[in-house]
Specification:
Layout lengths: L1 E4 H6 L3 H13 L8 E6 L3 E6 L7 H6 L1
Antiparallel strand pairs: 1-3, 2-3
Length: 64
């Protein structure tokens, strides 16, 4: 589960980025893409329920 604080998204001006991430995960159906099962929110947070994959973030490795 990925938990994103709404306040942090607003302060960092990441709302469009987070919406794009959610939209891609909803539509993606590929072996190399994590599957997202649900997303929901409360007054403070946005929750993305995704399949668990061990090993870390590919993004971090791509920066090296």
């Amino acid at each position: 589960m990925k938990i994103l604080r709404k306040e942090d998204m607003l302060l960092r001006e990441q709302v469009a980025h987070v919406r794009a991430e959610r939209d891609v995960l909803v539509e993606a159906d590929h072996t190399w893409t994590v599957k997202m099962f649900y997303s929901f929110q409360d007054s403070r947070n946005l929750y993305l329920i995704m399949e668990f994959l061990s090993g870390g973030l590919l993004f971090i490795f791509s920066l090296k």
